[in-house]
Amino acid sequence: MEQRKIGVLGAGQLGRMFVEAASRLNVEVHLLDVGTTAPAKQICSSDHHIDGKFSDASKIEELAKGVDILTVEIEHVDAKALQTVQDKGIVKHIHPTPKTIALIQDKYLQKRFLSGKGIPVADFASVGPEDAESSQAGAAKIAPLQVQAIDEAVKQFGLPLMLKSRTQAYDGKGNYVLKNVEDASKAVESLGAGSRGLYAEKWAPFVKEVAVMVVRSVSGEVRAYPAVETYHENSICHSVFAPLRHNDPAVAQRAQDVAKKAVAELEGAGVFGVELFLMSNGELLLNEIAPRPHNSGHYTIEACETSQYENHVRAILDLPLGSTALKVGSSAMLNILGVADLDADKAAIEKTFAPVVASLGVPGTTAHLYGKSGCRRGRKMGHITIVGNNDAQVRERYQILVDALDIAKKAADEGSSLPKELTIQGATNVSPDKLFKGRYASLQETVDKPVSSDFSHPHPLIGIIMGSDSDLPVMLPAAQILKRFAIPFELTIVSAHRTPDRMQVYARQTAARGLRAIIAGAGGAAHLPGMVAAQTALPVIGVPVKGSTLDGVDSLHSIVQMPRGIPVATVAINNSTNAALLAVRIVGSADVEVLQRMQEYMDSMEKEVLGKVEKLREQGWDYVVKK
Amino acid sequence: MEQRKIGVLGAGQLGRMFVEAASRLNVEVHLLDVGTTAPAKQICSSDHHIDGKFSDASKIEELAKGVDILTVEIEHVDAKALQTVQDKGIVKHIHPTPKTIALIQDKYLQKRFLSGKGIPVADFASVGPEDAESSQAGAAKIAPLQVQAIDEAVKQFGLPLMLKSRTQAYDGKGNYVLKNVEDASKAVESLGAGSRGLYAEKWAPFVKEVAVMVVRSVSGEVRAYPAVETYHENSICHSVFAPLRHNDPAVAQRAQDVAKKAVAELEGAGVFGVELFLMSNGELLLNEIAPRPHNSGHYTIEACETSQYENHVRAILDLPLGSTALKVGSSAMLNILGVADLDADKAAIEKTFAPVVASLGVPGTTAHLYGKSGCRRGRKMGHITIVGNNDAQVRERYQILVDALDIAKKAADEGSSLPKELTIQGATNVSPDKLFKGRYASLQETVDKPVSSDFSHPHPLIGIIMGSDSDLPVMLPAAQILKRFAIPFELTIVSAHRTPDRMQVYARQTAARGLRAIIAGAGGAAHLPGMVAAQTALPVIGVPVKGSTLDGVDSLHSIVQMPRGIPVATVAINNSTNAALLAVRIVGSADVEVLQRMQEYMDSMEKEVLGKVEKLREQGWDYVVKK
Asked: EC number(s) (chains A, B) (predicted)?
């Protein structure tokens, strides 16, 4: 469709997924990377690729000559060479601009820039000479100055103190956590002994790591993808969960706002990965920005209306940006990292791909393998995206892959072999159902367990609340129904009159926590359902609980006669069974599998009654009296 | 991951999308097709591709030598040559088997086979010599026999009569609709004058064309994708809508069952496209089977948990089959067919891609262009998938693309140029919002129109029903609320007591028609909400309508006091406003955009009341009395 050609510096997995998106739009891509079989080159047949380093100025110039637009899949490129090809007029557009890439390459300058623009970042300070150029001078001269600066930073920010290399730092490389001020020299030495610029950051004891992908058009329009939670192990991205769930309903929006504001300040078009720390007080601190598609945005391929890769293509071609909305209820991503080195363990690849084999039996999963031949411990060999209707379903699917990963890691560490079902040979002919136990299997297993062993699901869809434990006998049938339908729920006590603050907090958090409906039981004045409905946009189902007077009619009228504007879905007095069945129908209205189960439940009720018809016909009209 | 190599006969768009899926699983693919730049070869860098025809026995043998498994992206291959390479032991596995491919190549034998297995097909009869081989004999001898057989077929099946070539027929080529028996000779001549075997089919005046993709494992397990509606123009697939919507809730399941049964009877693994006719009496007739990924299954890439292409890879590698479930609420596919010949119109490609340009501004769309250089009228150049939460949203998005297509076709027919906004240059820098008016824009435009101009939406999410038009004054506020929230709805009269049959039919169709909830208003005995709830698995919201006696308490109790098993979500007496707000909350519980709008509505109510606080403070306590 589009005749402009794009040159990409780097042809790893990010380039590979970029090429996928570009091919779908008939866009010609030329790749610069070492070798002829780099991941992106494998799926982009062309005589125009260049074999060379993306940090090699002459190769960059060669690439530039053949294309209209240059972009990067990695920020560790020769930014000066990029600037030169642009200055020479060899290529018209470079996205993002060499200036932006250079700014991001130096984490200290990046932080100073962002801080200057009013973006919240952790407190930081230069360590030693501030001018990045001068740090190229003799290490012997600079190292003592750095040690001295660390001393000062400790006084300012306390311990532990995060020390970081300004450049060439990624996946935790170039970071040093200083716990004692006496270790300052050791830190400087370990980080490159003065040959690389350093800076210090106040320790940020975050409660969650958050990331937001932002796409920026040539004209500066910015669109944010949903905020996600990222989970790192050994400073390498392990998993991503989208959307971000949090008690504070405003956090996700604030994360998007901070990310958009930051990216809006940069120059050039494309996709940017923004990493943030969420602090215990709800504060968000921007950690760093990647000027390219990002690991935390892989999930967008299967889970969003337009993937980060297609939006990168669109942005740099100056085409309209695509929708960044989620198209599924919930999603997760698991990185497939090498669990062993191939030269030490012949089965390194097989073990590494064990979660992929497991995923073949799990609905909603898509494996992306990057076509890398060598396998090293920690190397990014692929990833798996998981999608589902809701968090509970996605977490259940995710857990199966993580279990496989744990088995594979153990096998790698112990030098033992994989269980057969985690090998390709074992997966062959195995019915998926043998691997995958099905939706919330663990929940269904509890149906017949005594009530005393029941606790709330960590990712509930339905909240069952009541004013007091005296309402439990009336409300427990609702829990039993939800278990029968394998709908994850939580059950707790929230009193409108005795815990008004708790009620407000509970009601306002529900949607952000991923709930779909609330069942509230109340007797007498029965304000709970209506007061909760006034503070959440979710459907609230009210169960009138029968008191010692008025037969529950007081509760019924109190719950059902809501003023125009705030509805409560009221069911029969003391009938929490119907409240739960209504909640199942609400979930089922957008989930065909649940709807199907409700239809089967209704069919079974019909069959049961027809059975009684038969019994009455066989045993006579007084069969009930007789038993 | 998987070391086995796959060879594919054909490297067109189906091969291209197959290669995409294979690459993601690190599976090596060798392609056989003419040239070096066939669509699939473009995205599969390899020294192993073969330049040649997939109907060339020697090339097939060459391909087979380099791989472990052979498959096809097109059925018009040399099935005998395939059988030979398998018999010679050159390749271990061919999927589907050469026998299956040969059977499907001959539509008459295919039909006879399916009919023999009890699969419902249109009545059919051989035309002339039944042995396909003998039809290679002199046309002069056979043609008169064929004309005679057509005469007999007309007597048996009536007119019009469908005449079909047994082989090499696709996209309407090889079909002849006989309207007068006198045209029999002309038909025979037009279909190849006896040189190709023919057969006759009883005319099938279908109400819808339906397709089901089925994946079959090596061991014979079959899994069906959702039944979809296909729409053809000039016998070429124009659009696909998933899932199939129909009044009869059992049709989709029956279509899947027929398709699975048919594919289970075939040999070999892989994905099969099954085309069916849905007749006015609800009968389903199998039209034909394609032994490969199919145009009607393109939508699965964006809309299903596992795409048809990945499932084809998995099936032929003997890996566990992936989930065929939809992961979005609704989906559509629009083929991008050449609107002009490139040698006649220099702007043929630009015009052909006009809907693609339009799609860049429409959320939920993904364009797939096939990398074909030549453009001919009717040539498949690409397709666009549309996903959304529900049918209404998908149809609204789809319509924008079809509008662009119509403009482009007109420009092609008249030799005029495209409007600027449908060219790539025009799309540049245009904010998507200028192209896309937003969710159900037309619906929102009617909010302030008089009631007399209101009619039901063709793809409603909510049904508003009541026993009589005398309930309209009470129920209309519900319609106004749904319009305000841009939730598509229908409004009609259904009486439990006066139209019990209509009520049953209405209630049972709702889920299959794509509705999400029903609002039922009723007074007095007020049986409608409960009786509807007894016959649908969707949530039913009851509005007690106040009668002339008992203040509506009769209706309230009648609606709310449902027996255990069947819930009705009851709202306040005469308060259809709250019923609609509850319906919006139900839709919003699985649609963040709608949930957001409900939150904004609640915020606006708060603001309105706070305004009154201010007014009272400014104008005095008697300000209401004064006005």
From this structure: 4.1.1.21
Q: Clarify whether residues B275 and B400 are in a common domain.
A: yes
Residues 6+ apart with CB under 8 A from A293: A14, A17, A18, A73, A213, A271, A273, A308, A309, A312
Query: From the list A369, A573, A589, which residue is nearest B1 (CB)?
Result: A369
Tell me how many residue pairs between chain A and chain B have CB atoms under 8 A apart.
Answer: 277
Q: Is position B620 within any domain?
A: no
Which phi and psi (to 5°) does residue B13 adopt? -70, -35
Residue A261 lies in domain: 208-433
Given this model, what pLDDT does residue B247 score? 87
* Whether residue B50 is found in the same domain as residue B166: no
Q: What is the pLDDT of residue A131?
A: 66
Residue B191: predicted pLDDT:
85
Q: Give B-chain residues touching A302 at CB under 8 angstroms.
A: 327
The mean per-residue pLDDT over the stretch A98-111 comes to: 95
Please list every residue in chain A whose beta carbon sits closer than 8 Å to the beta carbon of residue B534: 602
More confident position, B136 or A124: A124
Phi first, then psi: give them for residue B29, nearest 5 degrees. Answer: -120, 130
> Is A320 in the same domain as A459?
no
Apex A456 CA angle, A451 and A460, nearest 5:
135
* Residue A449 banded pLDDT, cuts 50, 70, 90: low
**B295 in a domain, yes or no?**
yes
Condensed to tens digits (0 to 9), the pLDDT of residues B296-320 reads 999 999 999 999 999 999 999 999 9
Beta-carbon separation of B432 and A328 below 8 A:
no
Q: Residue A189 carries which DSSP code?
A: H
Enter the tokens of residue A10: 């780097």
Looking at the 3D structure of chain B, how many domains does it have?
4
Confidence category of residue A625, pLDDT binned at 50, 70, 90: confident
Q: State whether B323 and A588 contact (CB < 8 Å).
A: no
Which residues of chain B neighbour A599 with C-beta distances below 8 Å? Answer: 511, 537
Average pLDDT, chain A: 92
pLDDT in tens, A112-138: 999 999 999 999 999 887 764 554 556
Nearest CA in chain A to B350: A1
> Within this chain, do residues B46 and B187 fall inside the same structural domain, yes or no?
no
Task: Show the CA angle centred on residue B519, arms to residues B513 and B525, nearest 5°.
Answer: 125
Task: Please give, rounded to a whole number of angstroms, the shortest distance from the CA of B532 to a CA of chain A.
Answer: 13
Same domain for B214 and B175? no
Q: Nearest CA of chain A to the CA of B348: how many Å? A: 11
Using an 8 Å Cβ cutoff, are A581 and A481 in contact? yes
B568 and B531, same structural domain?
yes
Contact residues on chain A for B313, CB-CB shorter than 8 A:
none
Q: Between chains, do B586 and A589 touch, taking CB under 8 Å as contact?
A: yes
- CATH number of the domain enclosing B63: 3.40.50.20
The length of chain A is 627
